[in-house]
């Protein structure tokens, strides 16, 4: 019934197995990939023909994690998987980015790649397994995919690179880098690093590229046995050479003139006018879709040719110059921290909010539930590019850009015990013309420091581009939107003056070489140092203390055995403290208590209350208390929080007392001295001995 093909190798100390022919046989390509005990089913399906009038490649990648893979039942009311998690979205992008450039030119059929995690051993992250499986499924499917690709995770510790580190090893590593590519070169890089040098980062990329070559060979071996017949690509319905020539003749000069316009909106208006003229003039000879496709190619040829020929770019810069920068902080009066970072026509308004541990994000992952105290949310409203568009929940791009900025900042955050705040940063991109994610990195660094968060060092980011032709190449610093759109590379590098903290690279051609990456990293370092210098004009380090509108968090420690006393039965005591003082209180299992309030007086009141609860009464020490009950033989006084003691009638006053109510009444505030403890540990108190020490007579006179 089944014709199963199976290939396996030892890779990074674990067995990697590819299997096809048993599961999901109606898909164009389906491969079950197992690494360790982590298993992912990857499928690839494409429509038999493109939809009429489509002028782009409709590729969708869906990575999904099933709770049963880790022996869990999903949380929530419905008890089933719902909308994609942040990780599922990020891994979907991770798979999409290296495979998208490798589909044949002109292929417009709707294509879907689905990667489903079926088993997770909680050691080997399924993302690398899914990338390998997606590549294998496409390679055997017959779909015109110019792969295969492979991917690897690289760690770095004690000067040594680690291939495919486990989850625990990643936690101890100075680097978490994912690299994907072909036999010829690298296509995609995603990483977080602890201020590593450019040399170490480049070495990690090449280490990963070298070590995933056996996986590419394994996929080829599988394809030689199991691949389906390759699809035939239809020939273009028009004479491309003739259309190119007619476009050059009709609007070539107008497009060249448009790309000398330095202002983005003006340039777009002139390009739009040239395209409209081409559509009108050539409508009788060619269809609109063909004209539109070749017009884009004309734009690319003109922009790329000008850069390689003259070394000058659209806005007049050379290949290394960074656009003018303006950095401002403290621009929102009520925000805890705020910054406006402007670089050319790209601008990000970044706002920091400080919260308590009650504000931490609870994440329910396959690996288990954990809390995150640093959140960075990136928003890209349509007005930022001068458009009217749909507003809604964040898309894949927004989630991906936010996570890149998060990775760039995360290694520089202070330890939680040194700065016990939950941090939420929101970046509103208010203008965009190239690399808003790197503007977010710069703005986040400034905003956090404006809020008083003591970053180890400021962080900046820069996006690099590439124009590569057969006769040469040029690496571009601080790329514009058009240079990203019509160029061959988007290479983002973030870091400090010491080293790199995040690196992300996407290639639109089949691969790039080590030489190009080395040049790009060196050029990016120069640009990053320049940007850090411009940022320092606004703020060189974190402000002293947090903003006056932010909560003040005070940390105290109490004995573990006293936690129950502070919380009280059913939380009665801690609720009373919160209600009476207005402070927020968090208690950890180790006895760490965090008290927070915007008003320091509220915080101090709560702290004194807690200290009173956990304090032990000391002999011969005078306390202020409250009479809570009057009986014939004395008065019970509440002191040290909820602790009570008895003032015997003989200890009420220096002279003989006939009736307790002659001296005190319920609700009176009195000073008492601890004079002993009875056999049951109950406290004996005295008001008389306080009177003797002060020379006062507090006896209440009978009327």
Automatic annotation (TrEMBL):
| Molecular-function GO term, any one | magnesium ion binding
List the catalytic activities from the record.
RNA(n+1) + phosphate = RNA(n) + a ribonucleoside 5'-diphosphate
Q: Where in the cell is it found?
A: Cytoplasm
InterPro entries for this protein: ExoRNase_PH_dom1, ExoRNase_PH_dom2, ExoRNase_PH_dom2_sf, KH_dom, KH_dom_type_1, KH_dom_type_1_sf, NA-bd_OB-fold, PNPase
Q: What is this protein called?
A: Polyribonucleotide nucleotidyltransferase
Pfam families for this protein: KH_1 (PF00013), PNPase (PF03726), RNase_PH (PF01138), RNase_PH_C (PF03725), S1 (PF00575)
Q: What does this protein do?
A: Involved in mRNA degradation. Catalyzes the phosphorolysis of single-stranded polyribonucleotides processively in the 3'- to 5'-direction.
Top EC class of this enzyme: transferase
Family stated for the protein in its record? Belongs to the polyribonucleotide nucleotidyltransferase family.
Q: Which GO terms describe its biological process?
A: mRNA catabolic process; RNA processing
Q: Where does Mg(2+) bind?
A: 484, 490
Question: Sorted alphabetically, which SUPFAM superfamilies does this protein's record hold?
Answer: Eukaryotic type KH-domain (KH-domain type I), Nucleic acid-binding proteins, Polynucleotide phosphorylase/guanosine pentaphosphate synthase (PNPase/GPSI), domain 3, Ribonuclease PH domain 2-like, Ribosomal protein S5 domain 2-like
Q: Which PANTHER family match?
A: POLYRIBONUCLEOTIDE NUCLEOTIDYLTRANSFERASE, POLYRIBONUCLEOTIDE NUCLEOTIDYLTRANSFERASE 1, MITOCHONDRIAL
Domain spans labelled S1 motif = 620-688
Q: What is its EC number?
A: 2.7.7.8
Give the signal peptide as a residue range, or say none if absent: none
Q: Which CDD domains match?
A: KH-I_PNPase, RNase_PH_PNPase_1, RNase_PH_PNPase_2, S1_PNPase
One Gene Ontology cellular component annotation held by this UniProt entry:
cytosol
Keyword Magnesium attached: yes
Where would you say this protein principally sits, based on its record?
Answer: cytoplasm
Q: Which domain of life is it from?
A: Bacteria
**Which residues fall in a coiled-coil region?**
none
Q: Which cofactor does it need?
A: Mg(2+)
């Amino acid at each position: 019934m089944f014709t199963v093909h199976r290939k396996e190798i030892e890779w990074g100390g674990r067995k990697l197995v590819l299997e096809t022919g048993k599961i999901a046989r109606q898909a164009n390509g389906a491969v079950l990939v197992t690494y360790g005990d982590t298993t992912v089913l990857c499928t690839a399906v494409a429509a038999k023909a493109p939809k009429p009038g489509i002028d782009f490649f409709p590729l969708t990648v869906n990575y999904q994690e099933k709770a049963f893979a880790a022996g869990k039942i999903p949380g929530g009311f419905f008890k089933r998987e719902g909308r994609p998690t942040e990780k599922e979205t990020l891994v979907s992008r991770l798979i999409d980015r290296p495979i998208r450039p490798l589909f044949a030119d002109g292929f417009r059929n709707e294509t879907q790649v689905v990667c489903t995690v079926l088993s997770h051993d909680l050691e080997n992250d399924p993302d690398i397994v899914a990338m390998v499986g997606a590549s294998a499924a496409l390679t055997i499917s017959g779909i015109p995919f110019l792969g295969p690709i492979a991917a690897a995770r690289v760690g770095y510790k004690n000067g040594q690179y680690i291939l495919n580190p486990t989850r625990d090893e990643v936690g101890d590593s100075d680097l978490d880098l994912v690299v994907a590519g072909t036999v010829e070169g690298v296509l995609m890089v995603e990483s977080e690093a602890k201020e590593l040098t450019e040399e170490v980062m480049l070495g990690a990329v090449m280490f990963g590229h070298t070590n995933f070559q056996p996986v590419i060979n394994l996929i080829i071996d599988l394809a030689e046995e199991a691949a389906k017949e390759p699809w035939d690509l239809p020939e273009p319905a028009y004479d491309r050479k003739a259309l190119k020539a007619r476009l050059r003749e009709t609007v070539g000069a107008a497009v060249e003139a448009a790309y000398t316009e330095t202002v983005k909106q003006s340039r777009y208006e002139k390009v739009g006018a040239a395209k409209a003229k081409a559509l009108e003039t050539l409508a009788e000879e060619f269809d609109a879709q063909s004209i539109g496709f070749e017009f884009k190619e004309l734009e690319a040829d003109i922009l790329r040719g000008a850069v390689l020929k003259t070394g000058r770019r659209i806005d007049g810069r050379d290949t290394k110059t960074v656009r003018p920068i303006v950095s401002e902080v403290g621009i929102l009066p009520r925000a805890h921290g705020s910054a406006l970072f402007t670089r050319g026509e790209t601008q990000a308004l970044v706002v920091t909010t400080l919260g308590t541990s009650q504000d931490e994000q609870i994440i329910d992952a396959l690996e288990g539930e954990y809390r995150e105290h640093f959140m960075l949310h990136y928003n890209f409203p349509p007005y930022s590019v001068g458009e009217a568009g749909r507003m809604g929940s964040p898309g894949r791009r927004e989630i991906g850009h936010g996570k890149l900025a998060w990775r760039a900042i995360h290694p520089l955050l202070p330890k939680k015990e040194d700065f016990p705040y939950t941090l939420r940063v929101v970046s509103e991109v208010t203008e965009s013309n190239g690399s808003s994610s790197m503007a977010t990195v710069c703005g986040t660094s400034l905003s956090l420091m404006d809020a008083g968060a003591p970053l180890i060092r400021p962080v900046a980011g820069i996006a690099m581009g590439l124009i590569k032709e057969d006769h040469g190449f040029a690496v571009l610093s601080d790329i514009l939107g058009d240079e990203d759109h019509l160029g061959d590379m988007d290479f983002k590098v973030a870091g400090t003056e010491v080293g790199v903290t995040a690196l992300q690279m996407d290639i639109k051609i089949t691969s790039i070489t080590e030489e190009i990456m080395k040049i790009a990293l060196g050029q990016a370092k120069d640009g990053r140092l320049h940007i850090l210098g411009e940022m320092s004009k606004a703020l060189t380090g974190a402000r002293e203390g947090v903003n006056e509108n932010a909560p003040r968090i005070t940390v105290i420690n109490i004995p573990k055995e006293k936690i129950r006393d502070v919380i009280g039965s059913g939380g009665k005591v801690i609720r009373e403290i919160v209600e009476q003082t207005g402070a927020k209180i968090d208690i950890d299992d180790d006895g760490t208590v965090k008290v927070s309030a915007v008003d320091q007086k509220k915080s101090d009141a709560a702290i004194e209350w807690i200290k009173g609860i956990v304090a032990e009464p000391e002999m011969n020490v005078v306390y202020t208390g409250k009479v809570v009950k009057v009986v014939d033989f004395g008065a019970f006084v509440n002191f040290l929080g909820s602790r009570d003691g008895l003032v015997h009638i003989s200890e009420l006053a220096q002279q003989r007392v006939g009736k307790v109510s002659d001296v005190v009444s319920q609700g009176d505030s009195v000073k008492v001295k601890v004079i002993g403890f009875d056999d049951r540990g109950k406290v004996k108190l005295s008001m008389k001995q306080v009177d003797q020490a002060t020379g006062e007579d507090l006896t209440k006179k009978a009327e």
